[in-house]
Amino acid sequence: MPGLTIGELASRAGVNRETVRYYERRRLLARPPRTMAGYRVFPDDAVDRLRFIRHAQALGFTLEEIRELLGLRLDERSSCEQVRARATRKLADVEAKIAALKRIRRVLGRLVHACETRRPTAPCPILESLAAPDARARKEEVQ
Amino acid sequence: MPGLTIGELASRAGVNRETVRYYERRRLLARPPRTMAGYRVFPDDAVDRLRFIRHAQALGFTLEEIRELLGLRLDERSSCEQVRARATRKLADVEAKIAALKRIRRVLGRLVHACETRRPTAPCPILESLAAPDARARKEEVQ
DNA sequence: CTACACCCTGTATGCAGGTACAGGGTCAAG
DNA sequence: CTTGACCCTGTACCTGCATACAGGGTGTAG
Question: Which residue of A has its CA nearest to B86?
Fold first, then answer.
Protein backbone atom coordinates (compact mmCIF):
# COMPACT_ATOMS: atom_id res chain seq x y z
CA MET A 1 0.00 0.00 0.00
CA PRO A 2 1.69 3.17 -1.17
CA GLY A 3 1.60 6.31 0.90
CA LEU A 4 3.79 7.75 3.61
CA THR A 5 2.98 9.52 6.81
CA ILE A 6 4.81 12.73 7.40
CA GLY A 7 7.09 11.00 9.87
CA GLU A 8 8.04 8.22 7.47
CA LEU A 9 8.66 10.69 4.69
CA ALA A 10 10.77 12.91 6.88
CA SER A 11 12.98 10.12 8.16
CA ARG A 12 13.42 8.61 4.69
CA ALA A 13 14.46 11.94 3.25
CA GLY A 14 16.57 12.79 6.27
CA VAL A 15 14.72 15.97 7.17
CA ASN A 16 12.70 17.16 10.13
CA ARG A 17 8.95 16.61 10.17
CA GLU A 18 8.45 20.31 10.68
CA THR A 19 10.50 21.00 7.61
CA VAL A 20 8.11 18.94 5.52
CA ARG A 21 5.17 20.99 6.77
CA TYR A 22 7.19 24.14 6.21
CA TYR A 23 7.87 23.17 2.59
CA GLU A 24 4.21 22.48 2.13
CA ARG A 25 3.42 25.98 3.38
CA ARG A 26 6.06 27.40 1.07
CA ARG A 27 4.53 25.34 -1.74
CA LEU A 28 7.60 23.30 -2.55
CA LEU A 29 5.50 20.24 -1.82
CA ALA A 30 1.94 19.86 -3.04
CA ARG A 31 -0.67 19.57 -0.34
CA PRO A 32 -1.08 15.85 0.02
CA PRO A 33 -4.41 14.06 0.44
CA ARG A 34 -5.50 13.33 4.00
CA THR A 35 -6.94 10.42 5.86
CA MET A 36 -10.34 10.82 7.54
CA ALA A 37 -8.48 11.84 10.65
CA GLY A 38 -6.65 14.57 8.80
CA TYR A 39 -3.29 12.80 8.53
CA ARG A 40 -1.22 13.65 5.46
CA VAL A 41 -0.58 10.78 3.05
CA PHE A 42 2.39 11.44 0.79
CA PRO A 43 3.21 9.60 -2.44
CA ASP A 44 6.43 7.63 -2.32
CA ASP A 45 8.22 9.90 -4.75
CA ALA A 46 7.92 12.79 -2.33
CA VAL A 47 11.16 11.43 -0.91
CA ASP A 48 12.95 12.20 -4.17
CA ARG A 49 11.46 15.62 -4.23
CA LEU A 50 12.72 16.37 -0.75
CA ARG A 51 16.17 15.12 -1.61
CA PHE A 52 16.21 17.26 -4.70
CA ILE A 53 15.31 20.29 -2.62
CA ARG A 54 18.21 19.67 -0.26
CA HIS A 55 20.65 19.16 -3.10
CA ALA A 56 19.52 22.29 -4.86
CA GLN A 57 19.85 24.28 -1.64
CA ALA A 58 23.42 23.14 -1.21
CA LEU A 59 24.05 24.54 -4.65
CA GLY A 60 22.91 28.00 -3.69
CA PHE A 61 19.33 27.99 -4.96
CA THR A 62 16.79 29.65 -2.69
CA LEU A 63 13.57 27.87 -1.82
CA GLU A 64 11.76 30.19 -4.20
CA GLU A 65 14.08 29.26 -7.05
CA ILE A 66 13.70 25.61 -6.23
CA ARG A 67 9.95 26.01 -6.30
CA GLU A 68 10.30 27.41 -9.81
CA LEU A 69 12.57 24.57 -10.86
CA LEU A 70 10.12 22.05 -9.54
CA GLY A 71 7.25 23.94 -11.12
CA LEU A 72 8.74 23.21 -14.53
CA ARG A 73 7.42 19.69 -14.36
CA LEU A 74 3.84 20.59 -13.60
CA ASP A 75 2.99 22.48 -16.73
CA GLU A 76 0.11 22.00 -19.14
CA ARG A 77 0.52 22.08 -22.91
CA SER A 78 -0.75 25.63 -22.99
CA SER A 79 2.27 26.93 -21.12
CA CYS A 80 4.93 25.01 -22.97
CA GLU A 81 6.61 28.04 -24.49
CA GLN A 82 6.72 29.79 -21.15
CA VAL A 83 8.13 26.72 -19.50
CA ARG A 84 10.81 26.48 -22.14
CA ALA A 85 11.76 30.10 -21.50
CA ARG A 86 12.01 29.57 -17.76
CA ALA A 87 13.98 26.39 -18.20
CA THR A 88 16.37 28.20 -20.52
CA ARG A 89 16.89 30.92 -17.95
CA LYS A 90 17.53 28.39 -15.19
CA LEU A 91 19.89 26.57 -17.49
CA ALA A 92 21.91 29.75 -17.90
CA ASP A 93 22.04 30.14 -14.09
CA VAL A 94 23.28 26.61 -13.75
CA GLU A 95 25.89 27.06 -16.48
CA ALA A 96 27.19 30.15 -14.71
CA LYS A 97 27.42 28.34 -11.40
CA ILE A 98 29.29 25.48 -13.01
CA ALA A 99 31.73 27.86 -14.67
CA ALA A 100 32.39 29.69 -11.41
CA LEU A 101 32.94 26.43 -9.54
CA LYS A 102 35.31 25.26 -12.24
CA ARG A 103 37.42 28.37 -11.76
CA ILE A 104 37.58 27.68 -8.05
CA ARG A 105 38.37 24.04 -8.71
CA ARG A 106 41.21 24.94 -11.02
CA VAL A 107 42.75 27.25 -8.46
CA LEU A 108 42.35 24.74 -5.65
CA GLY A 109 43.80 22.01 -7.82
CA ARG A 110 46.85 24.11 -8.58
CA LEU A 111 47.26 24.88 -4.91
CA VAL A 112 47.15 21.24 -3.93
CA HIS A 113 49.55 20.28 -6.69
CA ALA A 114 51.98 23.06 -5.87
CA CYS A 115 51.93 22.12 -2.20
CA GLU A 116 52.64 18.50 -3.11
CA THR A 117 55.54 19.22 -5.39
CA ARG A 118 57.12 22.22 -3.76
CA ARG A 119 60.80 22.14 -3.11
CA PRO A 120 61.62 22.12 0.60
CA THR A 121 62.95 25.65 0.66
CA ALA A 122 60.05 27.22 -1.22
CA PRO A 123 57.20 28.72 0.74
CA CYS A 124 53.78 27.24 0.20
CA PRO A 125 52.44 29.08 -2.83
CA ILE A 126 49.90 31.83 -2.55
CA LEU A 127 46.52 31.26 -4.01
CA GLU A 128 46.46 34.53 -5.84
CA SER A 129 43.56 34.21 -8.22
CA LEU A 130 41.00 32.93 -5.79
CA ALA A 131 39.93 36.36 -4.71
CA ALA A 132 38.96 37.52 -8.19
CA PRO A 133 37.64 35.09 -10.78
CA ASP A 134 38.25 37.50 -13.64
CA ALA A 135 41.15 39.61 -12.38
CA ARG A 136 44.58 38.39 -11.47
CA ALA A 137 46.75 41.07 -9.88
CA ARG A 138 47.65 40.29 -6.34
CA LYS A 139 50.01 40.77 -3.49
CA GLU A 140 49.79 39.43 -0.01
CA GLU A 141 48.78 41.19 3.14
CA VAL A 142 49.49 39.54 6.46
CA GLN A 143 46.19 40.07 8.16
CA MET B 1 47.05 57.28 -4.15
CA PRO B 2 45.97 53.81 -3.17
CA GLY B 3 43.48 53.16 -0.41
CA LEU B 4 39.72 53.14 -0.23
CA THR B 5 37.33 54.40 2.37
CA ILE B 6 34.69 51.97 3.45
CA GLY B 7 32.11 53.81 1.37
CA GLU B 8 34.21 53.67 -1.79
CA LEU B 9 34.96 50.02 -1.27
CA ALA B 10 31.33 49.17 -0.65
CA SER B 11 30.06 50.96 -3.72
CA ARG B 12 32.77 49.51 -5.98
CA ALA B 13 31.99 45.99 -4.81
CA GLY B 14 28.25 46.59 -4.85
CA VAL B 15 27.64 45.82 -1.20
CA ASN B 16 26.36 47.74 1.78
CA ARG B 17 28.82 49.63 4.00
CA GLU B 18 27.49 47.74 6.98
CA THR B 19 28.17 44.50 5.22
CA VAL B 20 31.83 45.41 4.91
CA ARG B 21 32.04 46.01 8.65
CA TYR B 22 30.14 42.80 9.24
CA TYR B 23 32.61 40.84 7.15
CA GLU B 24 35.46 42.41 9.07
CA ARG B 25 33.86 41.24 12.32
CA ARG B 26 33.39 37.79 10.84
CA ARG B 27 37.02 37.92 9.75
CA LEU B 28 36.41 37.52 6.05
CA LEU B 29 38.23 40.79 5.62
CA ALA B 30 41.42 41.63 7.47
CA ARG B 31 41.20 44.60 9.79
CA PRO B 32 42.49 47.42 7.64
CA PRO B 33 44.84 50.17 8.82
CA ARG B 34 43.22 53.36 10.01
CA THR B 35 43.83 57.05 9.53
CA MET B 36 44.57 59.20 12.55
CA ALA B 37 40.88 59.87 12.79
CA GLY B 38 40.11 56.16 12.95
CA TYR B 39 38.84 55.82 9.37
CA ARG B 40 39.46 52.46 7.72
CA VAL B 41 41.75 52.50 4.69
CA PHE B 42 41.31 49.45 2.48
CA PRO B 43 43.74 48.23 -0.16
CA ASP B 44 42.36 48.36 -3.68
CA ASP B 45 42.21 44.60 -4.01
CA ALA B 46 39.68 44.38 -1.19
CA VAL B 47 37.17 44.94 -3.98
CA ASP B 48 38.15 41.61 -5.54
CA ARG B 49 37.92 39.92 -2.22
CA LEU B 50 34.39 41.18 -1.68
CA ARG B 51 33.35 40.09 -5.16
CA PHE B 52 34.80 36.67 -4.52
CA ILE B 53 32.78 36.41 -1.33
CA ARG B 54 29.58 37.20 -3.19
CA HIS B 55 30.33 34.71 -5.91
CA ALA B 56 31.15 32.00 -3.44
CA GLN B 57 27.96 32.70 -1.53
CA ALA B 58 25.90 32.30 -4.68
CA LEU B 59 27.51 28.89 -5.04
CA GLY B 60 26.29 27.76 -1.66
CA PHE B 61 29.34 28.32 0.50
CA THR B 62 28.70 29.70 3.98
CA LEU B 63 30.65 32.68 5.26
CA GLU B 64 32.64 30.33 7.43
CA GLU B 65 33.57 28.17 4.46
CA ILE B 66 34.48 31.23 2.46
CA ARG B 67 36.70 32.39 5.29
CA GLU B 68 38.48 29.04 5.11
CA LEU B 69 38.83 29.28 1.35
CA LEU B 70 40.28 32.75 1.64
CA GLY B 71 42.51 31.63 4.47
CA LEU B 72 44.26 29.27 2.09
CA ARG B 73 46.14 32.16 0.62
CA LEU B 74 47.51 33.51 3.88
CA ASP B 75 49.55 30.55 4.95
CA GLU B 76 53.16 30.40 5.99
CA ARG B 77 55.56 27.69 4.84
CA SER B 78 55.21 25.95 8.17
CA SER B 79 51.57 25.12 7.56
CA CYS B 80 51.91 23.90 4.01
CA GLU B 81 50.82 20.35 4.69
CA GLN B 82 47.79 21.48 6.60
CA VAL B 83 46.88 23.90 3.85
CA ARG B 84 47.16 21.13 1.30
CA ALA B 85 44.80 18.99 3.35
CA ARG B 86 42.24 21.76 3.65
CA ALA B 87 42.52 22.58 -0.02
CA THR B 88 41.98 18.94 -0.88
CA ARG B 89 38.87 18.81 1.23
CA LYS B 90 37.50 21.98 -0.36
CA LEU B 91 38.32 20.57 -3.74
CA ALA B 92 36.13 17.56 -3.01
CA ASP B 93 33.28 19.87 -1.97
CA VAL B 94 33.62 21.76 -5.20
CA GLU B 95 33.73 18.58 -7.28
CA ALA B 96 30.54 17.40 -5.66
CA LYS B 97 28.80 20.69 -6.32
CA ILE B 98 29.86 20.60 -9.94
CA ALA B 99 28.60 17.05 -10.36
CA ALA B 100 25.23 17.92 -8.84
CA LEU B 101 24.87 20.98 -11.04
CA LYS B 102 25.71 18.94 -14.10
CA ARG B 103 22.89 16.56 -13.31
CA ILE B 104 20.50 19.49 -13.05
CA ARG B 105 21.90 20.94 -16.25
CA ARG B 106 21.35 17.72 -18.11
CA VAL B 107 17.75 17.52 -17.03
CA LEU B 108 17.08 21.16 -17.85
CA GLY B 109 18.77 20.74 -21.22
CA ARG B 110 16.55 17.80 -22.04
CA LEU B 111 13.49 19.77 -21.01
CA VAL B 112 14.38 22.72 -23.22
CA HIS B 113 15.14 20.44 -26.14
CA ALA B 114 11.97 18.45 -25.73
CA CYS B 115 9.90 21.63 -25.58
CA GLU B 116 11.59 22.91 -28.73
CA THR B 117 11.03 19.81 -30.77
CA ARG B 118 7.65 18.62 -29.60
CA ARG B 119 4.97 18.12 -32.23
CA PRO B 120 2.13 20.63 -32.04
CA THR B 121 -0.41 18.14 -30.77
CA ALA B 122 1.81 16.65 -28.10
CA PRO B 123 1.60 18.01 -24.60
CA CYS B 124 4.69 19.69 -23.23
CA PRO B 125 6.71 16.82 -21.80
CA ILE B 126 6.97 16.26 -18.11
CA LEU B 127 10.31 16.62 -16.49
CA GLU B 128 10.01 13.54 -14.41
CA SER B 129 13.60 13.07 -13.41
CA LEU B 130 14.12 16.51 -11.92
CA ALA B 131 12.95 15.40 -8.53
CA ALA B 132 15.62 12.70 -8.38
CA PRO B 133 18.93 14.15 -9.54
CA ASP B 134 19.99 11.03 -11.38
CA ALA B 135 18.72 7.55 -10.68
CA ARG B 136 22.04 5.99 -11.65
CA ALA B 137 24.24 8.31 -9.68
CA ARG B 138 22.29 7.92 -6.49
CA LYS B 139 22.98 4.88 -4.46
CA GLU B 140 24.89 6.40 -1.63
CA GLU B 141 24.34 9.92 -0.57
CA VAL B 142 26.46 11.88 1.80
CA GLN B 143 24.65 15.04 2.69
C1' DC C 1 -8.94 1.01 28.74
C1' DT C 2 -4.66 3.22 28.89
C1' DA C 3 0.01 4.08 27.31
C1' DC C 4 2.59 5.49 23.90
C1' DA C 5 3.98 6.93 19.56
C1' DC C 6 2.33 9.12 16.29
C1' DC C 7 -0.54 13.06 13.91
C1' DC C 8 -2.84 18.00 13.77
C1' DT C 9 -2.70 23.51 13.98
C1' DG C 10 -0.73 27.56 15.59
C1' DT C 11 2.65 30.33 17.48
C1' DA C 12 7.25 31.18 19.27
C1' DT C 13 12.10 30.71 19.00
C1' DG C 14 16.79 30.29 16.92
C1' DC C 15 20.66 30.97 13.72
C1' DA C 16 22.91 33.07 9.56
C1' DG C 17 23.38 36.88 7.18
C1' DG C 18 22.67 41.14 6.82
C1' DT C 19 20.60 46.27 7.60
C1' DA C 20 19.23 50.22 10.19
C1' DC C 21 19.59 53.55 13.37
C1' DA C 22 21.38 56.39 17.48
C1' DG C 23 24.68 59.23 19.04
C1' DG C 24 28.76 61.16 17.95
C1' DG C 25 33.35 62.60 15.37
C1' DT C 26 35.92 64.33 10.73
C1' DC C 27 36.67 67.22 6.93
C1' DA C 28 36.36 69.99 2.58
C1' DA C 29 33.53 73.56 0.32
C1' DG C 30 31.41 77.75 0.60
C1' DC D 1 32.54 78.45 11.05
C1' DT D 2 28.63 76.17 9.39
C1' DT D 3 26.79 72.58 6.30
C1' DG D 4 26.67 68.16 4.28
C1' DA D 5 28.70 64.04 3.25
C1' DC D 6 31.16 61.09 5.02
C1' DC D 7 33.25 58.06 9.07
C1' DC D 8 33.12 55.66 13.97
C1' DT D 9 30.99 52.19 17.67
C1' DG D 10 27.24 49.83 19.51
C1' DT D 11 22.95 47.80 19.55
C1' DA D 12 18.48 46.71 17.65
C1' DC D 13 16.02 44.94 14.05
C1' DC D 14 14.74 42.18 9.71
C1' DT D 15 14.43 38.08 6.36
C1' DG D 16 15.02 33.30 5.08
C1' DC D 17 14.98 28.93 6.68
C1' DA D 18 13.91 26.17 9.60
C1' DT D 19 12.87 24.03 14.55
C1' DA D 20 10.45 23.75 18.91
C1' DC D 21 6.80 23.66 21.75
C1' DA D 22 1.78 24.00 23.45
C1' DG D 23 -2.44 22.07 23.41
C1' DG D 24 -4.98 18.65 21.52
C1' DG D 25 -6.62 14.38 18.54
C1' DT D 26 -5.58 9.28 16.66
C1' DG D 27 -4.60 4.44 16.71
C1' DT D 28 -2.83 0.16 18.18
C1' DA D 29 -0.39 -3.08 21.53
C1' DG D 30 -0.88 -4.97 25.88
Answer: A112
